[in-house]
Design brief:
This protein has helices at residues 29-40, 61-74, and strands spanning 3-5, 12-16, 20-21, 24-25, 45-47, 50-54. By secondary structure, the protein is an alpha+beta fold. The protein has one domain (14-74). The strands form 2 sheets. A 4-stranded antiparallel sheet has the order 1-2-6-5, with helices on one face. A two-stranded antiparallel ribbon has the order 3-4. The chain is globular, with a radius of gyration of 12 Å.
């Protein structure tokens, strides 16, 4: 996924919403978010044209493989 804004501090990262993922087209962040949840179990927040993700677990490293795997599974394109 492509960062929309480089994080400086805080608990979440903002990403541009991809146009294509999971082998299909998306016209808005809401539809992409629902598909991402259904396909990977990773929950984000659609935020205008962006996707917002926060990692609310400790230690983060424990979940890093699963999160990276979910983004890889999506095979997004812009």
């Amino acid at each position: 996924m492509r960062l929309a804004v480089e994080p400086k501090a805080g608990f979440f990262a903002l990403f541009d919403c991809p146009k294509r993922a999971f082998g299909r087209e998306f016209s808005n962040a809401k539809d992409f978010n629902r598909a991402f949840i259904d396909e990977t179990g990773v929950v984000g927040v659609h935020f205008g044209q962006y996707m917002r993700y926060a990692v609310c677990a400790s230690p983060v490293e424990k979940f890093e493989r699963e999160i990276r795997g979910a983004f890889k599974k999506a095979e997004v394109s812009y």
